[in-house]
Amino acid sequence: MSVYLDNAATSFPKPDAVYEAVDHALRRVGVGPGRGGHRRSIEATRIVFEAREAVAVLLGVADSSRVVFTHSATEALNLAISGLLSPGDHVVTTTVEHNSLVRPLHAASGRGVEVTRVSADRRGFVTPDAVAAAIRPNTRLVALSHCSNVTGALQPVEEISAEVKKRGALLLVDAAQSAGMIPLDAPAIGIDLLAAPGHKGLFGPQGTGILYVADGVELTPLMVGGTGVHSSDEEQPAAMPERYESGTLNTPGIAGLGAGVAFIERTGISAIRERETSLVRQILEGLAGMRRVTVHGPAADEPRGSVVSFSATDTDPQTIGFRLDHDHDISVRVGLHCAPSAHRTIGTYPTGTVRVSPGFFTTDNEVELFLRALREIVGG
Predict the structure, then answer these.
(1) What is the pTM of this model?
(2) Which of 283, 329, 338, 336 is nearest to 306 (CA)?
(3) Which residue of 21, 84, 346, 377 shows the fewest CB atoms closer than 10 Å?
(4) Digitized pLDDT (tens) for each residue of the chain, 380 residues in all
């Protein structure tokens, strides 16, 4: 029996409606939006519009034009950082970020942007007070993940946002491990920029992502070119969302993303959260009974997402991952998870950890199969 426990990388399987939507967009529509007045192009425009509306509703956004489609959360983060920051600006981030945020900020530091990293504790948490203490008069942005892809630590974004707003900075949230899995009302929280991939908690295909840009926030486009509107102008359009969507959109991917978000709305994000929390609890309880296993991250009763990282005495993560895959057909993630700074923070660098991330479609039996296989590998 094949068991997939790497949903933090890409959710799998997808709802059937996602596969059907992608197939329909490829077979029955076949063209991009805004590139013609014929019925196929109009249908593509409708597909993209409805997906944008669905994402906006999920995030509590009243004006769906503030939702920009990208090809990944990484592209969304690059657009937010490169489009907002100028030499002399100051940014506050943390020591537990994914490289999708770390590297754009590092590149910005080479252009004269100063970056301060607030230290997280060994469980992966940062405090609102520590973030507030790092903010300066020239701080333009506070940028951090909502949920760690290494420890699963769920940051107190509401409290952090309150401190950021008091001091006049903007807040960028990397919601790669929370969008679609944890309720998020971006405007109510006070999030100015929110990046998320389509292929994780939103159940969409790879090659899709979104950036929410709050009203009043202006970014320099990462890329300019054809948008399907204002074609007589050489200047990039100012209108949202076309200002940031140059080139033909990934219509089949966006169709699948829209179907994924529709599935979330039908199912209820609270039900998804409850189900994944139950699976994480089952995993933590099973790991707690293995004397050679150390779990890294929040305690069972602390705020966390659907990610569990652990290591085992005398057995490196790569060996565990290989044996789970080769001997038991169980898929997990091992190593640094594109977040070396997070592993330095929690004390697991350079070997990293084994990361287990169940999804909504994971069954209790699959978790038991994983726990049984792990006991065989590392001992009880």
Answers:
(1) 0.96
(2) 283
(3) 377
(4) 899 999 999 999 999 999 999 999 999 999 989 877 899 999 999 999 999 999 999 999 999 999 999 999 999 999 999 999 999 999 999 999 999 999 999 999 999 999 999 999 999 999 999 999 999 999 999 999 999 999 999 999 999 999 999 999 999 999 999 999 999 999 999 999 999 999 999 999 999 999 999 999 999 999 998 877 777 888 888 899 999 999 999 999 999 999 999 999 999 999 999 999 999 999 999 999 999 999 999 998 999 999 999 999 999 999 999 999 999 999 999 999 999 999 999 999 999 999 999 999 999 999 999 999 999 999 87
Which pair of structure tokens corresponds to residue 254?
């966006």
Distance CA 184, CA 172 (A): 14
Q: Is 177 helix (H, G, I), strand (E, B) or coil?
A: coil
Bridge partners for 267 per DSSP:
none
How many helices (H) does the chain have, and how many strands (E)?
A: 12, 13
- Structure-token match 């997070």, residue found: 342
Alpha-carbon gap, residue 290 to 71, rounded angstroms: 41
Residues 363, 2, 258, 239, Cα dihedral to 10° = 120
